[in-house]
Amino acid sequence: MKTWVRRAGAGLSLAGALAAGVPSAWGQPMGLPSMGAVSSAELSPAVERTLGQAIMEQGRQDPTYVDDLDVNQYLTALGRRLAAHAPQALAQDITVFAVRDPSINAFALPGGYIGVHSGLVVGAQSESELASVLAHEIGHVMQRHIARGIAQQSQGTGIMVASLIGALLAALAGQGDLAMGVATFGQAAAIDRQLGFSRGAEQEADRAGLQMMRQAGFDPQGMLAMFRRLMNASRLNEGTGGGYASTHPLSIQRLSDIENRIEGQPSAAVKPDPEFWFVRTRLALIQARDHADRQRLRQTLHGEARDLRGQRQAAALFGLASLDQEDGDLAGARAQLERAQAAGAAPQLDMLAIRLAAAQGLTAAVDVSATAWKRWPHSQGVAEARAHALQKAGQDKAAAVFLQAAVEQWPDTPEFQKLLAASLQRLGREVEAHEAMASYFEQTGALPTAVEHLRQARTLSKDFYVQSRLDMRIRALRERLDNQRALLEPFKK
């Protein structure tokens, strides 16, 4: 499944393309190969990654984008666990992120990016069910369906692709602002429907996904259960034009194929990650936008806290404590948190403990975050919470040291560069702050902005060696910009 975010440049935008209408020829040709040798009609991995980064740069400004390190770290780890068992090599690393949307849906972007609607995670009744949808999307990425479909459209009447690439080229030349014309992931679904995969491609993705699930240690029955749930949801929502089935056409044939492949197979010895339940609860909290939603969620969590045990009960109590904290009932939140901690352990509980400690005092939050970090040294969410605690307490020197270590631990997580830049700036280390922001923008795909920060850093520095280092980085980024323009130019109409 493919979902696009429209982007704007100087005088050329996907918003304009949408307004002009999309020709019916934009739909994917039914004869698109699903497996086998790479077709000549496809994007190179470098072009695909460039497009994906550009779309994600815009997508991070989308109000529905879930900017939560803890959630996205879990989802990406799950995706990469599955991708490690892909029957064919992947041209791109898998990166999974969440979108706040109650519908049951997921989508793949160019470059190995996979978006998951919050409703899909909240609706999943096991980690294997969630894994089945991610494995299916990874199957599309593995078979390069996205790259081939985009390339065929760019060679035909691909007005959307041409507009996207035109906007990106303008921005790379410093003639456009990619932050203009922000579109939501939901608005992009109209384009996604135009790019629907053929039934054969969907079935191949099912089969590849099922193989990944088995080898990664998930229960294949999860795919069957999710299929049935999705088919039921599509019947209930028939005529609304939304949901997973509108872009991933489900059929009895696909369901029967999975049933036949699972039949007779031994039961899987599944060891689910207990964090699934906490991430599921966290996304349910993010998804609940109004009072009625929150009341319904509270009732559901009360029932789960009463009827379930272990990590699932702890996750429900975590949700109740979070609701109390958001409502200002700190005593109630602490009581629920204590019950949750007695039922299980998870980094999400310690992150909530840090937030509750901050209400007592900034020093208390720093102390609690130190303990949490010792307990969960691989959690990006806990690392972020500790950094915020240090910064709010005015301990920017300690925060900078901590964040520099976090950047080394997670070099591909740009949020830590942004946090580091804030502390460095408050410490008066302006050159380093601009360098950190340059790294942030480089990692999020905004190369012209990264170059501008490096130029500012060079202007501020009087050190010859620092200037030389900055000159090298500027030259390297300019070369990347030139290479990106050369890669994209053939696809511009």
From TrEMBL:
<feature type="domain" description="Peptidase M48">
    <location>
        <begin position="72"/>
        <end position="261"/>
    </location>
</feature>
<dbReference type="InterPro" id="IPR001915">
    <property type="entry name" value="Peptidase_M48"/>
</dbReference>
<keyword id="KW-0482">Metalloprotease</keyword>
<dbReference type="InterPro" id="IPR011990">
    <property type="entry name" value="TPR-like_helical_dom_sf"/>
</dbReference>
<protein>
    <submittedName>
        <fullName>M48 family metalloprotease</fullName>
        <ecNumber>3.4.24.-</ecNumber>
    </submittedName>
</protein>
<keyword id="KW-0378">Hydrolase</keyword>
<dbReference type="InterPro" id="IPR051156">
    <property type="entry name" value="Mito/Outer_Membr_Metalloprot"/>
</dbReference>
<keyword id="KW-0479">Metal-binding</keyword>
<dbReference type="Pfam" id="PF01435">
    <property type="entry name" value="Peptidase_M48"/>
</dbReference>
<keyword id="KW-0862">Zinc</keyword>
<keyword id="KW-0645">Protease</keyword>
<dbReference type="GO" id="GO:0008237">
    <property type="term" value="F:metallopeptidase activity"/>
</dbReference>
